[in-house]
Structure formats: structure tokens, C-alpha cells
Amino acid sequence: MINKHKKFLTTAVFCAIASTGFVLTASAEETMTHDLDEVVVEADKDALPGSYVKTKGSIGILGEKSILDVPFSNMNITQKTIETFGGPNQPLQSILANNPAVRIQGTTLHNDFSIRGIKGNGTSSYLNGIPGLMTQFAAPTFMIGDIQFISGPNSGITGIPSTYETTAAGGIVNFVSKKATEAPLTRYRQTFSGKGSFGEYLDVSRRFGKDKEWGVRINTELLNGNTAINSNDMEAQGIFANIDHRDKKSNTNLLVGYRHLNIEGGARWFSLKAAAIGKEITKVPSAPEASKNYGFDGLAKESEGYIIALNHEQKMNADWKWFLNAGMNSNKLQRNIIGASSNFVIINDKGDVSNNLMSTQTVTKNYYAQLGINGNIKTGAVNHDVTLALDKAQYRRRQKHV
User: pTM of the entire structure?
Assistant: First the structure.
């Protein structure tokens, strides 16, 4: 028993010495210092993790606001989302569907979608906060940097669009053009998608001046080939230039662009003949095959158009500024050979279709101007953000059957 006790004491003392030596060694190492190399992290401070959505965006005449500072549903998706979920020959809805309030309703031919169950398309959308500059047909996204949503009837905080297809009652979609980056950018991108659709895109950005107050960004598009839908060919050529100027008292942005678009085939819209429901039509038809083209030989949509959009803000003093938003869209639908109402009417349970065809040419011109002032008024501890604006929209449309 005595020998065992001595062995236990010896082991305990040895462990204590070893532990003390370990602590002393670790303590000595902790006093040493080492300078790490500089690490630079570049990111958008307003973007949430993943950089698919942003916390801030332009809310019409209210200006830049955080989603937490507005009393309605607001979502701002980024260029990363556009490039990840969109595609050169994909309908715009593949991007817009990232907003839970949006449902897909269109095809490669059109921009149609719905917000909270109410139909919308390009005619009720905004470009840099200006209504009437997008058409109902397939929209260009190669020059778009952000897309901002306001769900619900909030037209009072934006200009009132002059539309001929839909209204903005379900919500507002505002497309924001790409602007010049702080660092020079030259990017050439090739895309291949569908069954043989090849695209080429050039993105060039430069800033000039002593304080880089001038910015120019050029985006071009050249697209040709077959989409994922059989016998659906899409061709597009476009060029857009965004010029901006900034200083301590003002901000100005000018967007000018041209795009030609030609789509052969690809119609995939269906409706049920109202008089046949409950008689010849007794069940919901099966969903169409994803790759099948339900159009006909000769079906085509071809259009070309020009866009000009101007935004200007001028500070009058520390609390007040005046602003101007103006734009013009001139578009000609050169060929429009499709079923009447752009869809095919199902008449029985077999899925047979009966439809009148139409061949038209349509010329549309939209003009818009908005002038207003914005400022802060304090009444005691309450701060009021006040905006007064006057806007005018003019729409012209001429259609003829050919």
C-alpha cells in the first residue's frame, strides 16, 4: 500500500510539472504578434448574402428607400439574379418569377405575367422609373442591372403609365439600366442555349473626369438560333448606351438604345372556348409538352424600336431638390402573324383548336414627362418627406391588317 501511494504521488507531481510547463509555453507564444497581409473585400453593402436581392431600391417619386422603410411589399433583385435565372432566349418571366407574387403567363413572344393574379406586361412596366418605354413583346435584359418590384396597387408613388394592354393594378415592375462602374470594365460574353441559340454580348464601362463625374456604359447584343422549343427561332440585335453625370448638387442619367427582334414560331398560349365548357369540354386539358411548338408555319413576330430615358435631380439647398423624368419609345411591329388574341382556342376534350388568324403591322409611340420637387419639413420632433409632382403621358398607336 505504501509503494502504491508513493507511485500515485510521483505521477501526480509529474503531471503537475508537465501541465505547468505547457501553460508557461502557451503563455509565451500568446505574447508573440504577427501582422497579416491586407485583405480587401469588394461587395455591395446593400445586397443580402448571396447577392440575389438588395435591401434598397428606387421607390418612384419617394427616391431611394430601404425595404424596411416602406409600408408595402417591396423586392429588389440584382444583376446576379438576372444572369442566373434568365437567358438570352428565355421569356422575361423566368426572372420575374423569383418574386413570389409573380406568376408566369407568357412565352418567348411576349412579356406577359401576373402580379397577385392581375395581368401585366411590358406596357405597364417602368424603365428607370419612367412608364411606357417597354413594349408587350420580349424585353431585352442584357442592359438591365436591377429589377425592382412593388406588389399591390401603388401607382400613386410613380408616374401613371399610358397603356394599351394592361394596367399596373397588380403591382409595379421597374427595370434599372446598367450604369458605369467605378473600375473600368470590358467584358465579352458568349452564350449557347436551347437547341442551337448562339449569343454574343459586349459590356464596356468607363468613368471620366477629375473626380470620375462622367460615366459611360455600352451594352450590345447579337443573338441567333433555335430555342428549346422545336422550330422556334429567335434573332436579336441591340445596342444601348447609358451616360451619367454626378456632382455635389446634381445627378443626371441618360439611356438611349435600339433593338431589332425577330421570332419565328413559338406560340404556346391556350384558352378554352367559353361556350364549350361543360359540353364539348368536360375536363382540364393535359399540360402541353415543354419542347413542342404549337404554332404553324409562317407564324412570326418582328419588331424594332428606339428608347430614350432621362432622369435628373438638382439640389436647391440642404433640404430641397427638384427632379425631371422624361422618355420616349418608338416601336414598329413589322410582322405579326399569329392567332387572333395571340392564343389558340381549345374546343373539345381531344384538344382540337379552332382559331382565326391575323396578320397586322402596328406602330406605337409613347411620350412621358414628369416634373416635381422633393424636400423635408420638420414639425417639432416629426420629420416629413414631401414630394409634389406633375406628369403627362401620351400614347399613339396605329395598326393595319396586311
Answer: 0.79
